[in-house]
Specification:
Layout lengths: L2 H8 L2 H18 L5 H10 L2 E2 L36 E5 L5 E2 L1 H14 L3 E4 L5 E6 L4 H9 L17 E2 L14 H11 L14 E4 L14 E10 L2 E10 L11 E8 L3 H15 L10 H8 L1 H14 L5 H4 L27 H8 E3 L5 E6 L5 E3 H14 L4 E3 L5 E7 L3 H10 L14 E2 L13 H14 L6 H4 L3 E4 L13 E10 L2 E10 L4 H4 L4 E7 L3 H15 L6 H8 L1 H6 L18 E2 L2 E4 L17 H21 L3 H23 L7 H13 L10 H13 L7 H30 L1
Parallel strand pairs: 6-7, 7-8, 16-17, 17-18
Antiparallel strand pairs: 1-2, 2-5, 3-14, 4-5, 4-13, 8-9, 9-10, 11-12, 12-15, 14-15, 18-19, 19-20, 21-22
Helix pairs in contact: 1-5, 2-3, 2-5, 4-12, 6-7, 7-9, 8-9, 20-21, 20-24, 21-22, 21-24, 22-23, 23-24
Length: 747
C-alpha cells in the first residue's frame, strides 16, 4: 500500500475526494483546459494563495532558510502560480490544535516551506514559499491528522475563531468551544455558503467585556448569554452581524438579543442564505455583508432573516450535537495543585506576571506563549508539542494576537514549564502588552503590502523590549498593531496605537509612510474603532511612539484609559504632535528615510530629482493632495463636535479636492464646480484606467461618485464616519495614482 493510500485511510472520505478533485484541476490548468479565474477560485477555497515574490527575503531580517529562488524585482512577481512559491493557509477552528498536529505542521514547514510556522490574527497557521505542486500532498498529510485547508481563503466562511481561554475563564457565561466546533463542521462545504460575493468571518465569545472573541469586528458573531425562560435557565447567544475592519470598518449590530442554543445553527444558515441571495456580486468592494446591512438597515435585514428561518427545511444536524455539550470537557493531564513558595528561576516572576492566567478551576493556569510577530520555527513547534504532551496533554490553542496558550497547567508545574519554554526560545515575558505587537505580512509576502509592517513591528518590538522594565504600567498595557496597507489585516483600527502603510513622493523618490491611528478599543470585543490622524515617514514611527506614550504618562488623569485620554485632548492636539514628524529630509541629507525597516534597498528606484536653490521642488499636485488630507482631518474635528452636516461636507470636499489635484495635472482650468471636477476626473482618469491599480483605485473612485450623486438627507455619526474613512482611502488612491504617473514621466 502506498503512503497516499495509507493517508487516505486516515482522513474523511469527502476530504480525500476534494483533494483528488483539486489535483485534477491542477492538471487541467497545466494543460490549458481550465480557465485561470475558475482555477484561482478553486485553489483559494483550498487555502492556496499567491504571494509577493521577493527572492525569499523577509523584511524583518529573517531570510528563507531552505530555498533558493531566482532573483525577481520587488514589485513584479512571476506571471503564474507555477513559476514561484506561494502560501498555504491552514484552518484551525477556534484555535484548537493538538501536539500530533503540531508535529505534522513542523514536518511540512521543513519539507515544503522555509521552516517557519506563522500564526495569523484568525488563529490559523500559514506556511510561506510553498510550491503549488506540493499542495495536494501537504493537504493529505494535514487531513490525516484532522486538519483541512478547505475554505481557509476565497469567498467562503473563513476560520471560525473563539476565545482561547473558553471553558476556563472567570467571566464567561459558558464555554463556547463546542458551539464554535459545531458551527465550523456544519458550515464547512455547506451548499448555502458557496455563493457569497466575498469572504464571511465568524467569531464566538464567552462574555461581553473582554476582547478574546472580537465579535464587534466580524461579519457574524455570537456572545454567550443565559436567560431564564419559564423559570428555567437556558443557554443562548446574542447574535451580531455586519461588522468588519478592512478599508472601511463597520461596527457589528445586534441582530438578536437572545437566540436559544437550539436555534444557533439554523440562524447562521438563514443569515447565509439572505447574504448569498442579496449581497453584492459584481462590485467586490461592496460585497461584504456589512454593506448589505448598511443598505437595508438592521431592522429590514432582521426581518428577512426571520422570514428565511421560517422556510428552512429541517436539518437534524441543527441540534444533534447538543446532546454531547453537557458532557463536553477538556481533560487535564495532571492534578491541579498550587504553586509553592519555594525559590523560582530567574525571570520567572516577571514572566508569570504577564504570561500566566489563573483559571477558574483551582490549581490550574493558562500559559501564554509569546511568538514574535506570530512566528516560530519547526524546531520550536516540535519541542512545544513535547512540552504540551508532558504537562497538559492536548490543551493547546492559538490566539488572535498571534500567540499560543497552554491550558490546564498545574500551577506547581509553572516554573518547570517556564524553563522548558525558555530553553526553546519561547519563554519571553510581555504577552498581551505593548511589546507583544501584532502585524500582518505586509511587503514580506502580501501582494497588497505597501510598507513593511513586519519590519516596523520588529523594530518597535526590539526598542520597547530594551526598555520594558522602565515603562510606566499604564503604557505596558497598551496595544500596538500594524498593517502593511489600509485593509487592516493587522487590526490597526482596534488598537490603542495603530499604523497602516502607505507612501508619499519626495522629489523623484517614494518614501514609505504609515498612517497613525489612535483611540481604538480592544476590550468589549473590539468595541470601538480609531481614526487616522496623519501620515508620517516610516523611520519616524518609533519617535512618535515614544512621544505619544510619554505624553500619556505625563498628562493622563488617574485611572484614565488611553482611549479616553485621546478623546479628551482631541484630534487637533494629537495632530499637532505629528507636524514636525511629517517632514522628510532630502535624499542627499539622509538616505535612510528612502528605505523601509528591515530592507536596505531604496523604496523607489526613481532617478534623483533636480533641486533649485538647495530646496526641493514640490509639484502642484502634491500641494493640492496635502490640502485634501488637511480637509479630511478637519472633517474628523467637526465629527468630534457632533457637527455632522459640516463633517460630511468637509469629507466630501476633500475627495473633490483630491480629484481636482489629479485633473489639474492635465487640465489647469477645471474650476471649482463639483460637476465639472467629477466629469473631468471620470474622463481623464476613470475612462482611461489611469486611476485603477492593484490597490483598488477604481473602487475608491466610487466613493466620490456615490457622494456626488446622492446628497444625504440625514446625517449620523456612523454615516459621517464611513464617509471620512472612504475619503481617506480615496485620497490614498489619488496619491498612488500620482506616484505612478510621476514614475512613468521619469522612466
Amino acid at each position: 500500500m502506498s503512503w497516499k493510500e495509507t493517508l487516505a485511510d486516515q482522513m474523511p472520505a469527502d476530504w480525500a475526494r476534494e483533494i483528488e478533485v483539486f489535483e485534477a484541476q491542477m492538471e487541467l490548468r497545466r494543460e490549458g483546459k481550465l480557465d485561470e479565474k475558475i482555477f484561482a477560485e478553486s485553489r483559494l477555497r483550498r487555502g492556496v494563495y499567491g504571494q509577493r515574490y521577493d527572492n525569499g527575503h523577509r523584511h524583518d531580517g529573517v531570510e528563507s532558510q531552505t530555498l533558493n529562488f531566482p532573483a525577481a524585482p520587488l514589485t513584479k512577481g512571476p506571471e503564474t502560480m507555477w513559476d514561484a512559491p506561494g502560501m498555504v493557509r491552514i484552518k484551525i477552528p477556534y484555535g484548537g490544535v493538538t501536539p500530533d498536529q503540531m508535529d505534522v505542521m513542523a514536518d511540512l514547514a521543513e519539507e515544503y516551506s522555509d521552516e517557519i510556522l506563522h500564526v495569523t490574527t484568525r488563529q490559523d497557521f500559514q506556511l510561506h514559499f510553498v510550491h503549488i505542486e506540493d499542495t495536494p500532498d501537504l493537504m493529505r498529510r494535514l487531513a490525516a491528522v484532522g486538519i483541512t485547508t478547505r475554505e481557509a481563503c476565497g469567498n467562503s466562511v473563513r476560520n471560525i475563531t473563539a476565545c482561547p481561554i473558553a471553558g476556563v475563564c472567570h467571566d464567561e457565561s459558558f464555554d463556547v468551544t463546542p458551539y464554535a466546533s459545531a458551527t465550523m463542521k456544519y458550515l464547512l462545504g455547506h451548499p448555502d455558503v458557496q455563493d457569497f460575493g466575498r469572504k464571511f468571518k465568524v467569531a464566538f465569545s464567552g462574555c461581553q467585556q473582554h476582547a478574546c472573541g472580537l465579535v464587534a469586528m466580524h461579519d457574524m458573531g455570537a456572545i454567550a448569554v443565559k436567560k431564564t425562560v419559564d423559570g428555567v435557565q437556558k443557554r443562548g447567544f446574542s447574535l451580531h452581524v455586519g461588522g468588519g475592519l478592512g478599508a472601511v470598518p463597520h461596527q457589528a449590530k445586534v441582530m438578536e438579543e437572545f437566540v436559544p442554543e437550539e436555534e444557533l445553527l439554523p440562524m447562521f444558515q438563514a443569515v447565509s442564505r439572505v447574504y448569498a441571495r442579496l449581497g453584492e456580486k459584481k462590485n467586490r468592494g461592496r460585497a461584504r455583508i456589512k454593506f448589505l446591512i448598511a443598505k437595508l438597515g438592521i431592522e429590514e435585514f432582521q426581518k428577512l432573516v426571520r422570514e428565511e428561518r421560517k422556510v428552512l427545511p429541517h436539518d437534524d444536524r441543527w441540534t444533534s450535537y447538543l446532546k454531547d455539550v453537557p458532557s463536553y470537557r477538556e481533560d487535564a493531564a495532571k492534578e491541579g495543585s498550587s504553586l509553592n513558595g519555594a525559590g523560582h528561576p530567574e525571570g520567572f516572576d516577571d514572566w508569570s506576571h504577564t504570561n500566566v492566567y489563573h483559571q477558574r478551576q483551582k490549581g490550574y493556569a493558562v500559559v501564554s506563549i509569546t511568538l514574535p510577530l506570530g512566528d516560530m520555527t519547526s524546531f520550536q513547534a516540535r519541542e512545544l508539542a513535547k512540552i504540551t504532551r508532558r504537562y497538559v496533554g492536548e490543551a493547546l490553542r492559538t490566539t488572535v494576537e498571534q500567540n499560543m496558550v497552554m491550558r490546564w497547567v498545574s500551577e506547581a508545574d509553572l516554573p518547570a514549564v517556564y524553563l522548558e519554554l525558555k530553553r526553546i526560545g519561547l519563554g519571553q515575558a510581555g504577552a498581551e502588552s505593548i511589546v507583544d505587537l501584532t502585524a500582518c505580512p505586509g511587503t514580506d509576502t502580501c501582494k497588497l503590502g505597501i510598507a513593511s509592517s513586519r519590519g516596523l513591528a520588529g523594530e518597535l518590538r526590539g526598542r520597547l523590549l530594551a526598555k520594558r522594565a522602565q515603562l510606566d504600567p499604564a503604557v505596558q498595557k497598551l496595544r500596538i498593531k500594524v498593517s502593511g496597507c489600509f485593509n487592516s489585516c493587522g487590526q490597526h483600527h482596534i488598537s490603542d496605537i495603530g499604523f497602516y502603510g502607505n507612501s508619499r513622493s519626495v522629489g523623484s523618490y517614494k518614501v514609505p509612510h504609515f498612517q497613525v491611528i489612535l483611540g481604538g478599543q480592544w476590550v468589549e470585543n473590539g468595541g470601538a474603532y480609531g481614526l487616522a490622524i496623519g501620515a508620517i515617514p516610516s523611520k519616524r514611527v518609533p519617535e512618535f511612539v515614544d512621544r505619544i506614550t510619554e505624553r500619556f504618562v505625563r498628562d493622563k488623569l488617574p485611572e484614565e484609559s488611553f482611549q479616553d485620554f485621546t478623546r479628551r485632548i482631541g484630534k487637533l492636539e494629537l495632530r499637532g504632535m505629528l507636524d514636525d514628524l511629517m517632514k522628510v529630509p532630502a535624499y542627499e541629507q539622509d538616505k535612510s528615510f528612502y528605505s523601509d525597516w528591515g530592507d536596505p534597498r531604496e523604496f523607489t528606484m526613481g532617478d534623483m530629482g533636480a533641486g533649485e536653490c538647495a530646496g526641493e521642488i514640490v509639484s502642484l499636485v502634491q500641494v493640492e493632495l496635502a490640502a485634501a488630507e488637511r480637509e479630511v482631518f478637519e472633517a474628523q474635528l467637526e465629527m468630534e463636535k457632533e457637527n455632522y452636516p459640516l463633517a460630511d461636507e468637509r469629507a466630501y470636499h476633500s475627495m473633490l479636492q483630491a480629484a481636482k489635484a489629479l485633473v489639474k495635472v492635465q487640465f489647469l482650468d477645471v474650476g471649482e464646480d463639483p460637476a465639472s471636477i467629477v466629469s473631468e476626473f471620470k474622463t481623464r482618469y476613470i475612462e482611461t484606467q489611469l486611476f485603477n491599480d492593484r490597490f483598488a483605485g477604481g473602487k475608491f473612485a466610487n466613493y466620490l461618485f456615490q457622494r456626488f450623486e446622492t446628497t444625504p438627507v440625514k446625517f449620523t455619526r456612523d454615516s459621517v464616519r464611513q464617509l471620512i474613512e472612504e475619503a481617506q482611502l480615496f485620497i490614498e488612491a489619488a496619491y498612488a495614482c500620482q506616484l505612478r504617473l510621476s514614475e512613468k514621466k521619469t522612466a
